[in-house]
Response regulator
Amino acid sequence: MSEDIAGTIGANLPYLRRYARALTGSQDSGDRYAAATLEAILEDTAPFENNDPKLALFHAFHLVWASAGSPLGEPDSRLSASAQDHMSSLTPNTREALLLHSIEGFRVEEIGTIMQVDSGEAQELIDIAIREMESSVAGKIMIIEDEAIIAMDIRAIVEDMGHSITGVARTRTEAVDLAAREKPDLILADIQLADNSSGIDAVNDILAQFGPDLPVVFITAFPERLLTGERPEPAFLITKPYTEAQVQSAVSQAMFFSSTETLAA
């Protein structure tokens, strides 16, 4: 194996391990399949010649994964067990396409290359997974937003998806009080609030009360305040102006995976 190929594989290995964990529902199982992928690559590096190395790496993993029957591993935490339980109910191949798209950020045509299907089928697999997620997971959602029109719009989108709303908070204090009265299953939060308080601080206060497993989706005109390159960064961040589809997708995925950090860390 050339140094260039080895270096490229090493740079992308953390992302493959993250994906393998998400797919199998277990860190140990995911690492075993990642290791098996490396062994397969050592035997045949031809796919890396004249091909995008990251796509070739993920494609090699899929060959190993498929040859083993696409199994799920033993969950290594309550959260991974929850995510694994949900994913096991999805139509075959849809969870792979969904995770490649939502967690790893591959484009549809790249997913087609990895899974050896055409772009149309890859998009259909993603769409099926999203529809199945929306129909299988519903809960109580809290909105932290100081602009009344935007709050009403977000509320309508979320309620149309089948979720209930615990309430709308316009300030940090209101948000903490609202969460204390009724614990939400998910928080939709803006950053800049009515009294110049911070939605980030409000969310941190609420997570301190209920624990870090409560999923959060930030919808904000100030994404640079969260995308700082420092850990942790939110797994789900929507920039204003948003689309209805963006809100639907982020809410569905965050609810489905139970925690915004579980599959993104």
